[in-house]
Amino acid sequence: MNERIVHILLSSFLPMLEAGIKVTVPLTLVSFVLGLILALLTALARLSNIKPLVLLAKFYVWIIRGTPLLVQLFIIFYGLPASGITLDAITAAIIGFTLSVGAYNSEIIRAAILSIPKGQWEAGYSIGMTDKQALIRIVIPQAIRVSIPPLANSFISLVKDTSLAASITVTEMFQIGQRITATTYEPLLIYCEVAFLYLMFCTVLSKVQNVLEKRMDRYVAK
């Protein structure tokens, strides 16, 4: 490996890592938290007996899951200005990722709630709980344990999906890599380095996921 290649790799590492810490990670965290809230509301709407809510939730999930995330980002950032709604790149990215997380994770949460035996609901009713109280105090805590592994996988996938934000001018890790490639003319080296950084982020998150799962296993009856 010659000196030029070493210099390129070393000089590009910190700018990309900084973009990952300052943009990619916050973008992932904010989008995922907002997406989880939206996912829970959507799942509860799907499980309700209110037909308009059920239909609205189904339509939302159908649209988001049936169209590419990249196209959704383009519609939000490049398409909405045509109707008079202009958003900055970060806001557009957060909205796009939040909608995506909300749709996909609503199915995870809905399945987790449905997996809780009806006897748990009946146990709550037997001590005078309402539907809402049984849901909040008995069902949701158990559903959380069931849903942690798939939700953690969704979070890790979102870290990688944030690279799509580069297409709408968000200066996250991948776009910094693209800019460095444009000046160094070393696409293989730089993109491999970007891939390595994403791999490191996801590896750390996988370790955290394993710790969370082990902690939750302590509360599961054997």
From TrEMBL:
GO molecular function terms attached to this record: L-cystine transmembrane transporter activity
Compartment(s) where it occurs, according to its Swiss-Prot or TrEMBL record: Cell membrane
Residues spanning the membrane: 29-47, 59-79, 85-104
Domain of life, source organism: Bacteria
Keywords: Amino-acid transport, Cell membrane, Membrane, Transmembrane, Transmembrane helix, Transport
UniProt key word Transport: yes
Name the UniProt record assigns to this protein: Cystine transport system permease protein
Organism, scientific name: Clostridium acidisoli DSM 12555
